[in-house]
């Protein structure tokens, strides 16, 4: 495998700026906040150009210089393709909006963008000699962890709320994780992982509690910028749970500006949550930098059912600095956007992706999103993992087929 130069200099507490050594195993900072990976961007910019990317494979490892893995042999590959930007032309016309592009992340390994973060987390774990990993999950993160760890030969323990959809639990277990259902929410499962660290000697891979999942999600920002020919879109609508993707993209844009690949313009970052679990929206509306834990979280969009996010201030800072906003949508609005996109665009979203479409529809009406703005929606997972409301009829082939009835039915 080709070796690339790497540029990580150190890690930094996202809250206090305190410096931590690179190439060592880290969880949260001493202040209990996420650590961010820092690079020598000047040297980086001398070793890679926009043009040099053109000759590389269409996968997110093409951004190697922007990533922390030192040795290519530690990379675990399952086909980390660049995901397409699908124009939603029919909806755009009907709603009279600017260009709508759906970034379809459901095509990544294990069917969700969690593969970006976990591919990096597992590569770094391998590089730093980790033999056991654990995490709480609402489904997709656990599946990605299980897949990359099985391939890397790392043992995994995954803890899910007991109402996690069966298909996700089956996927996690089938891919080789020791899988546990618990009668609580994702943060309760997170407590099981955190409190078990000493006795079980596992590495806590919870969202933002290790530094590298953000770096993986950062590739969404790099990829988006490259796909848009290094022009920023006007608005990015992101379904926000732990916020890794939003924080990662914001970090990507900052690094790209520092090396002069983009200017100082930024998309407005819009964080979407479900009405039944909207801690970030509440904090945004109340002008707070931190979000209070949400009680009795409930929504069909399991990926954004996150009552408390360690990186709350990073999400809120990015949303505010970008002149964006946070908005919640109801499960009803999610369901109807889900169906509308399937019928009018032929795109099977996941409910979290549908939440971004529902938010767009709402905010075109409210005027917070203008009708000339180019909007990127994130579809984070394949719609095939989720229940779909369908209707079909039965024909008895022992009798003559009645086409009049077929014509009139459904
Ligand atoms: C994890 C997940 C999200 C939320 O992503 P974050 O970056 O953690 O906020 C949204 N949708 C789906 C399908 C997910 O799996």
In short:
With 410 residues, this protein is an alpha/beta fold.
Describe the structure.
The chain is built from 15 helices and 13 strands. It has helices spanning 41-47, 50-53, 89-95, 114-127, 140-152, 166-174, 186-195, 197-200, 212-227, 244-258, 279-286, 312-321, 331-345, 351-366, 403-408; strands at 8-13, 19-21, 35-39, 85-87, 100-104, 132-136, 155-161, 178-182, 203-204, 235-239, 268-274, 325-329, 375-379. It is globular and about 70 Å long. With 410 residues, it is α/β, with parallel strands linked by helices. A 6-stranded mixed sheet has the order 4-5-13-10-11-12, with helices on both faces. It has a domain at 93-105 and 212-385: Rossmann fold (3-Layer(aba) Sandwich). Bound molecules: pyridoxal-5'-phosphate. Residues 112, 114, 140, 207, 239-245, 303-304, 350, 352, 380-381 line the site of pyridoxal-5'-phosphate (PLP).
User: Could you give the distance between the termini?
Assistant: 55 Å
Radius of gyration: 21 Å
CATH topology of the domain at 93-105 and 212-385: Rossmann fold
For the record, the CATH class of the domain at 93-105 and 212-385 is Alpha Beta
- Biggest pleated sheet: 6 strands, mixed
Report the average pLDDT across residues: 96
Shape: globular
Key structural traits:
binds pyridoxal-5'-phosphate; 410 residues; Rossmann fold; 13 strands; 15 helices; 4-stranded parallel β-sheet; alpha/beta
Write the layout of secondary structure elements.
Elements: E1 8-13, E2 19-21, E3 35-39, H1 41-47, H2 50-53, E4 85-87, H3 89-95, E5 100-104, H4 114-127, E6 132-136, H5 140-152, E7 155-161, H6 166-174, E8 178-182, H7 186-195, H8 197-200, E9 203-204, H9 212-227, E10 235-239, H10 244-258, E11 268-274, H11 279-286, H12 312-321, E12 325-329, H13 331-345, H14 351-366, E13 375-379, H15 403-408
Parallel strand pairs: 5-13, 6-7, 6-9, 7-8, 10-11, 10-13, 11-12
Antiparallel strand pairs: 1-2, 1-3, 4-5
Helix pairs in contact: 4-5, 4-9, 5-6, 9-10, 13-14
The structure holds pyridoxal-5'-phosphate.
Pyridoxal-5'-phosphate is lined by residues 112, 114, 140, 207, 239-245, 303-304, 350, 352, 380-381.
